[in-house]
Amino acid sequence: MRILAAMSGGVDSAVAAARAVEAGHDVVGVHLALSRAGGTLRTGSRGCCTIEDAMDARRASDRLGIPFYVWDFSERFRDDVIDDFIAEYRSGRTPNPCMRCNEKIKFAALLERALELGFDAVCTGHYAALVDGPDGRELHRASDAAKDQSYVLGVLTAEQLAHTYFPLGSTPSKAVVRAEAEARGLSVAQKPDSHDICFIPDGDTKGWLADKVGAATGDVVDRTGAVVGSHEGAHAFTVGQRRGLSLGVPAPDGKPRFVLEVRPVSNTVVVGPKEALATAEISGERFSWAGRPQSEGRFECEVQIRAHADPVPARAVFDDGVITVVPETPFDGVAPGQTAVLYDGTRVIGQFTIDRTVSAVPVAVAG
């Protein structure tokens, strides 16, 4: 096959490309330039898209003896990932930019260009497995549960899965990948993993959002609507947060309070007891299926609401373009904007963006 290897400059994508070459494929490496801030370097940066990363990707390609290119996807990244991130926070939601990047950039824009240029598949260093099932290509969890990235890949469609290549899916651990990189003479063998949001290199999400969204003083209220404090910008809060609330009125029981809801229209933050974070139901209408589409009706599944959360057995209902999920045990602290990925065992069924949540704890009525 003709393989386009997406090379981030990290060890995983370098070893994935090396395995594609070793398997006898015709491989070309490409690094995506997702920012036009040309001075961004690893120093002070905690992302994965710096100039140094591009140089590391080039060195790895040279070592593997494959052609290498840098493609400018900065405009598409700004429109589909950064602007979406800002808009979601303005709406009081908690987005996952890595999901949007996989959905809109790596497996949409990049794959589209790859197919136009005659490539058969895009190769990445993600830890996930592909299985050819009776109804087509299936996406499954990786062998290494600690590194499994099937959650952030839950946005992939059947067509995208048909042109995707994940050489690391059956690798038992990251240590094996690093050892292989060392043996292959790849300079990124011991390079630290990237973390945090790549387009906020200093990690100060609160300050970055204040600059983009703006900050305005508002009320912090309890579940009955009583004012218990104030804030300097609702964008700085997310569901489940405990620290930084600066409440002027203590809870009647003296226990800590947590953010339960962010209301951007009224610039209000709602707080309450920890038990009120328990979520009995979630639903959404922005969804996709990872393979064969799910028929309308009820079905059993497991649901994961964060990249590193444990899956929870649940009952799902797909009806009139809306997915509603009721877990066997309540979720803890779910925010609108998060992604729920549905599983059948190790197989990814699909995903949806959470639009609505229902608390498992009703509001106490005074009197």
From TrEMBL:
The record marks H126, Q338 as: Interaction with tRNA. One of its GO terms (molecular function) is ATP binding. ATP binds at A6, M7, S8, G9, G10, V11, D12, S13, L32, G125. It is found in: Cytoplasm. The active site is at C101 (nucleophile), C198 (cysteine persulfide intermediate). Residues 281-350 form the tRNA-specific 2-thiouridylase MnmA-like C-terminal domain. Its EC number is 2.8.1.13. Gene3D superfamilies: Adenine nucleotide alpha hydrolases-like domains, HUPs, Translation factors. Keywords: ATP-binding, Cytoplasm, Disulfide bond, Nucleotide-binding, RNA-binding, Transferase, tRNA processing, tRNA-binding. It comes from the Bacteria. It catalyses: S-sulfanyl-L-cysteinyl-[protein] + uridine(34) in tRNA + AH2 + ATP = 2-thiouridine(34) in tRNA + L-cysteinyl-[protein] + A + AMP + diphosphate + H(+). GO terms for biological process: tRNA wobble position uridine thiolation. Its main location: cytoplasm. Disulfide bonds join C101-C198. Residues 208-272 form the tRNA-specific 2-thiouridylase MnmA-like central domain. Residues 147-149 are annotated as: Interaction with tRNA. GO terms for cellular component: cytoplasm. Belongs to the MnmA/TRMU family. Catalyzes the 2-thiolation of uridine at the wobble position (U34) of tRNA, leading to the formation of s(2)U34. This is tRNA-specific 2-thiouridylase MnmA. It comes from Microbacterium terrae.
